Amino acid sequence: MEHLFSDQSLTVMMKIIIAVFLSGAIGMERGMGNHHAGLRTHILVGVGSCLMMILSLYGFTAFSEEHGYVQFDPARIPSYVISGIGFLGAGTIIVNGSTVKGLTTAASVWTVAGLGLVIGAGMYMEAVFTTVLILLILIFLNNFEKMFLANKKQKAYQLEIELDRDETVTPIMEVLESHHLALADMKMKKQHDGRKMLYVELETRQALNEMKLFEELTNIPNIRTVSTVKS
User: Fold this and answer.
1) Of 150, 176, 205, the domain-final residue
2) Which keywords belong to this entry (predicted)?
């Protein structure tokens, strides 16, 4: 019983609890934004990497004391944690055409892994400072981007255009180019009655006059309807 609650065991449990709270703080911020990797994922990554660091520091102490000629590198296991966490971060990244989402969440998962290693090494003040800094970056820089960088980001539009069988896409492309819309993806599907459904994914950095765009598209001969697809 004394071995279970030794000073080293209490230190290990304290490190794990700190990892839960600090990793959970970052995970909660991600979860509040409805990101794929939220509270539970970040806690598991932080605690798991903390355990790997603890294993690297204390797990082989008895063996090394028994076999004095054997030496261990305490940085070996943490190095594999940092390189191996990439597969989990990649799972949070979503690529839709030319749009990429989830990069920030992937970076936060990778950072939380490093946070767990730092806690496992006993660098508590550094871990707390880093957690506060990460939260400030995620919360306040996100608002900064929305306020000052919104106009510089590409905005995505998806259109559904119903065509007659004899219509070509050349006049449509000319109208889209006149509104400074870049083509990201285009799909054509034929209906049973001979009509064609054209699905166009567009991007622009400028403000779009949708009413004028729809008017010019519907004025093209043999175009029946134009509508916006909600993503």
Assistant:
1) 150
2) Cell membrane, Membrane, Transmembrane, Transmembrane helix
